[in-house]
Amino acid sequence: MQALQISLLVLFFPWSLSPLSCSCVCVCVCVCVCRPGEKIGVVGRTGAGKSTLIIAMFRLSELNEGSITIDGIRHNSLALQQLRSKIAIIPQEPVMFKGTLRSNLDPFQNYTDAQLIEVLNKCLLHSLVDQHSKDMGLSKEVEVFGVNFSLGQQQLICLARAMLTRSKILLLDEATASLDSDTDAMVQKVLRTNFNERTIMTIAHRLDTIIDSDRILAMDKGIVAEFDSPKTLLANPKSIFSELCRNAGPDEYKRLYEAAMSAQGYQTH
User: Fold this and answer.
1) What backbone torsions phi and psi does residue 11 show, to the nearest 5 degrees?
2) Angle subtended at Cα 168 by Cα 166 and Cα 173, rounded to the nearest 5 degrees
3) Where are the alpha helices (DSSP H) in the chain?
4) Predicted structure pTM score
5) Per-10-residue mean pLDDT for the chain, 269 residues long?
6) Exposed, middle or buried, 29 (CB in 10 Å: 0-12/13-18/19+)?
């Protein structure tokens, strides 16, 4: 279990690769502490700074000021490989490449067939490892970008890959934004059942996917404007989170409100 603490972040993004180009300054006023195993939903309008958190966490751009610590260790003191091995990410677009199902799950051959089959079963992909069906199993061919799998299967395979890494921090970057509601429900079921001991930060596209989070981190113009439970934020009609829920329409707002009021969160703190 790993605690995550984020303080004032300042990053400089170059507009281009030219050394003569000007830089874009991104200031993310983000001071928050995530408890081990806590589930955080990140919301905000376009340009609020949600994706900047992921850029900073993976050190895709180095911080100029501020800090991110994992279990009290500053993340920029770790080697990149060591840091990124501690954090798993499920992006909006699933990442798959030409090869086999096995090579997509375990490109470095660190795990046994039994371990791979176990995570596929946990991710509701039993049919892919049904040894009684033709062209099935871990040797099943994967075409470029995984086009011979449905989008839902691709995302569940990415979840299985993250499950194998056993990293204690999982980032979901609007991972179910392109999925239909039924497949989204499958992904949410896998997360709740098999990732309950991991610290999860979800950048939300659908508010119903984070309504039972332990806390909501609402960002506005690069600033953390709110950081509290969904129930508390919805009780305040002036909160950003409450406004986002109301913008979904009266029926959806009622459903989200009732879900938040009855939710116990992923865990009790």
Assistant:
1) -125, 150
2) 100
3) 50-57, 80-85, 101-105, 113-122, 151-165, 181-194, 230-234, 240-246, 250-262
4) 0.83
5) 65 48 53 85 87 86 82 89 90 91 94 94 88 70 94 93 90 81 86 90 88 92 89 95 95 94 61
6) middle
Closest CA to 52 of 262, 180, 220: 220
CATH numbers and ranges of domains, the chain:
4-96+149-262 (3.40.50.300)
First to last CA, the chain: 14
pLDDT tens digits for range 163-221: 998 888 999 987 777 788 788 888 888 998 999 889 999 998 789 889 999 999 998 88
Q: Specify which residues 10 forms β-bridges with.
A: 27, 65
Residue indicated by tokens 């966490």:
57
Tokens standing for residue 259? 């879900």
